[in-house]
Amino acid sequence: MQRPATTHPDPARPPNLFGMDREELASSLAPLTGRPFHASQVFHWMYARLQSEPRGMTDLPAALRRELSERFRVTWPEVREVRRSADGSKKYVLVLEDGGEIEAVYILYGDRVTLCLSSQIGCPLACAFCLTGTMGQVRNLTPGEILGQIAVIARDNSLAGTSYRVVFMGMGEPLLNLDAVMGAFRVMVDRKGFGLSPRRVTLSTAGLVPGIERLGRESPRPRLAISLGASGDKQRDELMPINRKHDLKALIDACRRFPLGPREKVTFEYCLLDGINDSDGDAARIARHTRGLRAKVNVIPYNEAGLAGFRTPSVERAERFRHALLARGVAATIRWSKGRDVGAACGQLVTSAGAR
Asked: What are the tens digits of pLDDT across the range 31-87?
């Protein structure tokens, strides 16, 4: 059962329009206007044009803009800090209305921009190599809090109307908050919303089989990525406790059943831990797991996060592991994480405050 995504809003404050979908917005604005297209205009202003001031929605009647300003608000998370990496990436520390904090990342790969979003404050899955897991789960995020991460980063980096990617690879397990994630996703891919192609949005899970099956029934839906972490059950039980509930066979079987579109593949993310899961035997087992499956493997060398017992493998070791996969017919790449110098890389996201 999903934990409710609630921010305990202040009843003295006007309702926040940001985060509402088309239907919710039309219902909220119906008492103010008899013209349904006004809700579509507000939707476009909030998401496509990143307008957070109702009075600035200039193609609406002046009286309606005034009423919107008096009865509603358009509120995003507040920026507490922006940490700039030497590689051009940025980590945003964002404060939510209840005082909870999350992190989101603006990532540059050459000219390609990717936004890494959080879906929860903290994470309950306690993967041994992930700093976020040390927080536990505080609560789920709402659709508005998820979309607000895009709005903050997009305005700060002039992304409105440009092409970029979104990955749910930040704080939290997205499949534990799938209702809110999919609510946000539908606004992302709405042509009057953020206007993203569904192919440019990826959801990463540690391996919740029922959630994978549910995601496969959604249309449209994000692309699927699996955080693999280990090649065998015994080791995965230790590194990723979710494996004790959904073991590798159940996980791989769910991936085989997942409905893939043309040219689509399941991505397996493999956090490479020096001396732990980086042997040729590990590569051979991964090849057996993925045989006959339309898949690719992203080898992600571990990012130092202050967790005892884990080290980043050398470049040579990472390359050898990738070649061991390629030699067995597995499509594999190495992804050296961006933003490592500011704690913005995979497995490094953590905040000092949950919900005050």
From this structure: 999 898 999 999 999 999 999 999 999 999 999 999 999 999 999 999 999 999 999
- Residues marked active site are found at 103, 346
Give the residue-averaged pLDDT of 336-344: 88
CA dist 150 and 308 (Å) reads 33
Separation of alpha carbons 26 and 41, rounded Å = 10
Neighbouring CB atoms inside 10 A of 262's CB total: 4
pLDDT at residue 11, as a whole number? 65
Indicate the average pLDDT of the chain: 93
CB atoms near residue 148 (< 10 Å): 26
Let me know: does 174 contact 181? Beta carbons within 8 Å.
yes
Which of 13-22, 102-111, 312-321, 343-352 bottoms out in mean pLDDT, i.e. has the lowest?
343-352
Say if pTM beats, i.e. exceeds, 0.85: yes
Angstrom distance (rounded) from CA 89 to CA 170: 14
CA distance 262 to 339: 33
**If residue 185 lies in a helix (H) or strand (E), which one and from where to where?**
helix 178-189
C-alpha closest to that of 153 among 216, 221, 103, 101: 103
Is 91 in contact with 343 (CB distance < 8 Å)?
A: yes
Task: Compute the C-alpha angle 16/92/165, nearest 5°.
Answer: 85
The set of residues, in sequence order, having a beta carbon less than 8 Å from that of 97 and lying 6+ positions away, is: 7, 9, 10, 75
Using alpha carbons only, how large is the chain's radius of gyration in Å? Answer: 21
